[in-house]
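Inputs:
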Amino acid sequence: MLPGAPYLARGDDGELRLEGHSLRALAQRHGSPLYVYSRAAMRAALGAYQRALQGRRHLLCYAMKANSNLAVLQTFAQAGCGFDIVSGGELERVLAAGGDPARVVFSGVGKTRAEIRQALATGVRCFNIESRAELDRLNDEALALGRRAPVSLRVNPDVDAGTHPYISTGLKGNKFGIAHGDALAAYRHAASLPGLEVVGIDCHIGSQITQIEPYLDAAERVLDIVAEVEAAGIALAHIDFGGGLGITYADETPPPADRLIGALLERVDARGYGARELLFEPGRSLVGNAGVLLTEVQYLKPGAAGDASAKNFCIVDAAMNDLVRPAMYDAWMAIEPCALRDGPSAHWDIVGPVCESGDWLGRDRPLCVQPGDVLAVLSAGAYGMAMASNYNTRPRAAEILLDGERAHLVRERETVRELFAGERLIPD
Ligand code: LLP
């Protein structure tokens, strides 16, 4: 089964379709590289969380760093979601997409004074605070504006999420959160500051997590802290369990969102906190398998004849600047031809035009391809376009959002002129 099924499917005619649209036809019409997302797939992924939380006081804050296209944000805002943001720029996007700032939680270890002022003025729901120094800064800024800032402390539960070290965030060696042993003292400090109002607790232990156990371990730790903090007379109105649920890229079998949430709710109920407002910050699991990156084969460069160890390179028009996950995390993402052709397949390294040996999208993939063919990199809806850059002066790809019969161009392809519009020559 293809990751992204049933929205992504290959027809009997061999054509790969997303939400019923031929991907090859979309690439022909809009050019490549091209990101294509299915709105129905995003809604279905969200539905699993919503179902599991029905009847509970809760807020799903889409972690928009995964895919921050305005039309994607609009989709989640219309479905009632809040947002987990990590910058002033993300806050502006939420507003531009029609999102409600009163449903925004502001995460991140390095909020600047300007970002704090912007978020206070906009009226975000909560600041997720990661250090004592940040508490003091927020207190100063809130007092200067004559406000009380709502705060949650992000605690670092020191559990191993069992994921790639670059995206593991809940271990004590990570820069994130307040060590669980220091949490009570930090809460006491927060409660003593007149510009702050303590409203909750949060954690986030990592990303692409494929097991339930790390979540349950983290939840137990967080609930221990809730008990300790409330025993000290500081009430916590909400508990935020963060995001991190993984998706299937290859053969991973992460729990479905409703099963994960169900297991967490059981623990929360057993500890007597079932009536609290519960927050979650899913990113990848809402959008990852709803999107693909389309790219056209430019050249085939087979290995030297007679050298069995030589590599075959399939050079495509997408590169590490369009999709950095393989280069950055050694991530394996499925690559499928948009139309099948008859003939023997060979093993190809799918590489881009960028001048780095790390510029690869897939290695050693059995494919039958010819120049001009369109390939789809699957599971590319999360941390794809959102991490794209302009390295090698490459304009970023266009984005399409499919919605039933319609295919909306939700981001135009960048032009080279736009890339250096802000640059200046100096006088001779
Ligand atoms: N909440 C916080 C505080 C986070 O730092 C993150 C992700 C999330 C929620 C959402 O996590 P998700 O549900 O998407 O796993 N670029 C990497 C992933 C980095 C994740 C950073 N934090 C990748 O491509 O795998």
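The chain has a mean pLDDT of 96. Flag for discussion at group meeting.
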